[in-house]
Structures are given as C-alpha cells and as structure tokens.
Write a structure and sequence with these properties.
This protein has 8 helices and 12 strands. The chain has helices at about 15-25, 95-110, 110-120, 145-155, 185-190, 210-215, 235-240, 285-300, and strands spanning about 1-5, 25-30, 45, 60-65, 85, 135-140, 160-165, 175-180, 195, 220-225, 245-250, 270.
Length: about 325
C-alpha cells in the first residue's frame, strides 16, 4: 500500500472527510502538523522542513500545496535521485485573475486615495485621476496559470493585452501580442498597466528596477502578484514618490510581510494586500482535487502534471 505523509500548516488543512477520500485510493495516510521525520513515506504532500528530505530514502514524489517551489529549488535536497517534485499550479489562477481585475479597477478609479479620504471624513473629488480599463493596454508578464486568467478577463473588459513569456508558442486568443523578455523595454513603454505574474527564479529576481520603472509611462500602473523580489522595492518606492509611475497594487512585497513604518504603507497611490490574491472559499477542495488526480496518475504509472524543472526553477 502506498504510504503518504500529509503535512498541514496555516494555509493548508484537510478535513477528515478529505483525508478519507485519499485513503479510498488505496493509500495509507499519515496527517500531521508537527513533523520530526519523513520516515518511509513514498509520497509527501506538503511543505516539510527541507533538511528532513535528506533522510527521506523512500520518497519518490513530493507534491506542494502551493504554486511556488521555494525552498525546494534543488534536487540535491533529496536523499535519492529522481524524486518528482510537483506543485499546485492551476489551483489559484481563477482567484488571482479576479484579484488582478479588482486591483486594475481600484487603481483606475483611484480607490486608494478615496479610501484614505473616507477615513479622514474628506469629501473631495479628484477629476484628473480616473482612467479607462476598456481601451487600455495591459502588459502581462508571465502567461502561465495566473497570467492567462488575468489576460482573459481584461480582454473581455475591452483592454488590449500584451503577453510576455519565455516561450512564444501557443499564443492564446485573448492575448493580442506575445513577446519574450527580449522585448521587455518596448512593452513597458507601451503599457498602461504592467502586471507581474512571473515566478521567482534567477532570471526574474530584480527584473523590475529603476531602469524599468523609468521606461514606463508616468500615468502607468504596476501590479505584482508574482513574488516580491521580482521588483526592486527601493526603486519602486522612488518611482511612486517622484511621479515616475502613477501607482501600484502589490499582493507581494520584498521583504514580506512589509515592515511597519515602510513608506509604501503611507502612499496614496498604492494598494497593498497581504499575499491574499490566492484566497477563495474552496481553495482546500481545489488542492485536494488536483492531488487526487495526480495520485491516480502516479498509481497508474502515468506522467504527473505540474512537474517542476529544477533547471528553470519552476
């Protein structure tokens, strides 16, 4: 019988009924929040301390309940070679797509300023700040699960969509133009909304810095739901303070959480959400359904979905 170790944490928790559905697949399940050893588990579903993987000699497949793979970025972490690492990409795209659209509209209608005015009981209209979403150019960096869901929704709202990704094959119909990162400068200069949905890798860390914010239109907005370290926080703060760009909406920051007293908290042209774009009412059920599909593939000897490429870092 396949032995599965499931590790819960503050963002990942399964009910007894959910665990029973895994056991019905012919698996022996251990469910814990206090892990001291992986033991002889063949499958791990969760985010164990990386140091425990070095003694997990029976482990063949490690499935993450998140889309991000940090800190499991190297095959050298595992006791045996050939361990399959998969993530939960596909679980969060719809929720994050809606979150991005909400951010776009909130920036377009200047909600950050009006929210602060409301707290101060100030009735004052800003006639110069409103923007259109329909007809605007939205540049989506990273056209995976998150970026596709965002671009499809923005296209339906009348935006002109530009996608930037590593591969130029298979352009979705809701992407008007598709480029790779070599065209980053041109895309940044054209966009009204720059939306970062990229994973954090060696190639994307610090991708948006002072130079990139300087290429953007002064009336453009920067939205980040990827990872905080993809944007240089100091450079972004400077661009927002000095009018280099019109505003930003950040679901991720560097560092994270954003320290108390950081100037980004106080800027009228910034929206900050606490890494909450992935939240949806049925997120645990979605994670379970993906894992059950993966488990059936594993037991049948079929290729798993969402295989992490350690060379690419995602």
């Amino acid at each position: 019988m396949t032995k599965i170790l499931i590790l819960s944490n503050e963002t990942f928790e399964l009910t007894p009924a959910m665990l029973m559905r895994i056991e019905e697949q012919g698996a022996e399940v251990e469910y814990t929040s206090a892990l001291k050893s992986i033991g002889d588990a063949e499958i791990v579903f969760g985010c164990p301390p990386a140091e425990l993987l070095r003694d997990a000699h029976a482990l063949k497949w490690h499935h993450l309940p998140n889309a991000a793979i940090q800190p499991y970025t190297s095959p050298a972490l595992y006791a045996r070679t050939g361990v399959a690492l998969t993530n939960s990409s596909g679980v969060y795209g719809e929720a994050i797509g809606e979150h991005i659209v909400a951010m776009v509209f909130a920036l377009a209608r200047n909600f950050p300023l009006y929210a602060r005015q409301q707290r101060g009981h100030v009735w004052k209209r800003d006639d110069d700040s409103a923007r259109w979403v329909g007809g605007a150019t939205a540049a989506v960096f990273g056209v995976g699960d998150l970026g596709k869901n965002a671009a499809r929704r923005l296209k339906a709202l009348g935006a002109y969509t530009i996608g930037v990704r590593r591969s130029l094959i298979d352009k979705p119909p809701y992407i008007d133009e598709l480029y790779d990162l070599r065209s980053k400068d041109e895309v940044l200069s054209r966009a009204d909304y720059v939306i970062c949905c990229l994973p954090l890798t060696g190639a994307t860390r610090g991708l948006f810095g002072a130079r990139e914010f300087g290429l953007m239109k002064p009336r453009a907005y920067f939205i980040n739901v990827g990872r905080g370290a993809i944007a240089d926080t100091e450079a972004l703060t400077g661009a927002l303070r000095e009018g280099g760009i019109a505003g930003a909406a950040l679901d991720v920051t560097d560092p994270e959480p954003l320290p108390e007293g950081h100037p980004l908290w106080e800027l009228d042209n910034v929206i900050i959400t606490p890494h909450a774009s992935c939240v949806c009412p049925d997120v645990q059920e979605r994670k379970l359904e993906l894992f059950l599909e993966q488990l059936r593939r594993y037991q049948a000897g079929r290729m798993l979905k969402n295989m992490v490429d350690f060379r690419e870092g995602y």
